[in-house]
Amino acid sequence: MHYKCLLFLSFFILLFLHQSSAQQRPNVIIINADDLGYGDVSCYGATKIHTPNIDKLAAQGIRFTNGHASAATCTPSRYSLITGKYAWRKNGTGILPGDAALIIPTDTLTLPKVFKQAGYATGVVGKWHLGLGNAVQKNWNEPVAPGPREVGFDYSFIFPATADRVPTVFLENQTVIGLDKNDPIEVDYQQKVGNDPTGKEHPELLKLQSSPQQGHDQTIVNGIGRIGYMSGGKTARWTDEELSLTFLSKAKTFIEKNQQRPFFLYYALNEPHVPRMPATMFKDTSGMGYRGDVIVELDWCVGEIMKALAVLGLDKNTIIIFTSDNGPVLDDGYQDEAITRLNGHKPAGPLRGGKYSIFEGGTRMPFIVTWPGIIKPGISNALVCQVDLLASFAALLKEDISGFKSDSKNVLNALSGNDNKGRDYLIEQAGALAVIKDNWKYIEPNNRQAYNKLTGTELGNAPAPQLYDLSKDVGETNNVARQYPEKVKEFEALLEQERNKQLN
Ligand code: NG6
Ligand code: CA
């Protein structure tokens, strides 16, 4: 054969081999909602609100009834998901202000780095809330580092903290987009900067009133009072009604651009976190006010991602994990009728408590895993947690992480429906810590507030130990600690042992 032909032929053989090996490695998308409760989606029992797309995911995959975030608020929950370590082991991992420095060390293994090492394209689109840069004082008018890139994401399109915190801007690859250099951004969480009106001084300018005593009355952006002060960056500021559509389009673009190679996308939705401000096409669609409307909107976004995968022919070879960062809350800072128009809906379903709470409502999450053709659809009661995704995906991708000390357990067999137990036990975090083991739940005694009056949440704190038999009391109403003193002791010891564990 002519040598040129041979060269040509071998090129195609190589290409074929490359593509078929690439095809064997599934793409992975983690969709993480913000403050979406266990009872907020219809496949977990909601009847007043309909989430057909999430239900479809659940019907194609495994719906976990005992799937968890490791903490009841955003920052510690996301910290664990990305690092594979419990956030309570590290100071400074509570809810971060919008100007916080990056809290994830850049020299540690992370979930995106596991994928990167395995040759994946990695991206994050959505809410970040893990800090940016090396210090609070930083120049938002230049690229900001370290950030998602140093944590392991090749591509990022994020907002820094929460939708209710300044700066209300997007950063693409760590640079604020749409910025006019002649109108630089300044951010301050201590004192007012610039001349923008604040919600406190000018409530008449607000389209969404702040709740009494909950703050959210500092710089007004898009008719909404925020936490924190900012000036400048007028052309870069977002419009809340466009948040989810913007993230969706960036997520779809990332998928399209990386369709030829395996990719990992962490798609961190903003809904239904406050301020809830649905896109026009979703206003008044739920009959439950804006909180319901933005849940309809988030469900629609999930459907759009599924459609995009199908159009590209990637649906069969893409694992989707759908979950939420912490439990639900109704009044989290704005008077948006979430309570008055609830219409009997139960955001936490059968669970007690919600966001901020050490009861199950705080950390037991919708948790759905799909991988069409590989994972058999069903329902699983296995105990799994977002902190386990790092070790589980390392196992799936055959990445050796044996030298990495973490809290992440390889629960791949549970995630794929081949094991009904999952991890042995799990530590949950709100203010206090709790342990779940064999369907028993222990909450350590503590003197924190039992009830948050502002948000109307039962926090689950009590000065005496609490023990619940979740197999018949998932709503944690009957404290049986006194009947089982031995169990209480066993749990105390377990918690003590976990607290003393050194991971570094
Ligand atoms: C709280 C805010 C709340 C919300 C939360 C963060 C007050 C009174 N409340 O401090 O509105 O922003 O932080 O939510 O300021 S999370 O889902 O990102 O953890
Ligand atoms: Ca949250």
Topology:
Layout (H helix, E strand, L loop, with lengths): L2 H22 L2 E7 L18 H9 L1 E3 L2 E2 L5 H10 L27 H7 L3 E7 L20 H4 L3 E5 L11 E2 L2 E2 L9 E3 L31 E2 L2 E2 L3 E3 L11 H15 L5 E6 L21 H22 L6 E7 L35 H4 L3 E4 L7 E3 L3 E2 L3 H8 L15 H4 L9 E5 L3 E5 L2 E4 L7 E2 L4 E2 L7 E4 L15 H16 L4
Parallel strand pairs: 1-12, 1-13, 2-15, 3-16, 4-5, 4-12
Antiparallel strand pairs: 2-14, 5-6, 6-7, 8-11, 9-10, 13-14, 17-18, 18-19, 19-22, 20-21
Helix pairs in contact: 4-9, 6-7
The structure holds 2-acetamido-2-deoxy-6-O-sulfo-beta-D-galactopyranose and calcium ion.
Protein model, in words:
This protein is of the alpha/beta class. The protein has 2 domains: 23-177 and 238-423, Alkaline Phosphatase, subunit A (3-Layer(aba) Sandwich), CATH 3.40.720; 426-500, Arylsulfatase, C-terminal domain, CATH 3.30.1120. Helix content is 24%, strand content 16%. It is built from 11 helices and 22 strands. It has helices spanning 3-24, 52-60, 74-83, 111-117, 148-151, 243-257, 290-311, 360-363, 389-396, 412-415, 485-500; strands at 27-33, 62-64, 67-68, 121-127, 155-159, 171-172, 175-176, 186-188, 220-221, 224-225, 229-231, 263-268, 318-324, 367-370, 378-380, 384-385, 425-429, 433-437, 440-443, 451-452, 457-458, 466-469. The strands form 6 sheets. Strands 7-6-5-4-12-1-13-14-2-15 form a 10-stranded mixed β-sheet, sandwiched between helices. β18 and β19 (440-443) form a beta hairpin. α4 runs parallel beside α9 and α6 (243-257) packs parallel to α7 (290-311). The radius of gyration is 23 Å and the shape is globular. 2-acetamido-2-deoxy-6-O-sulfo-beta-D-galactopyranose binds next to loops.
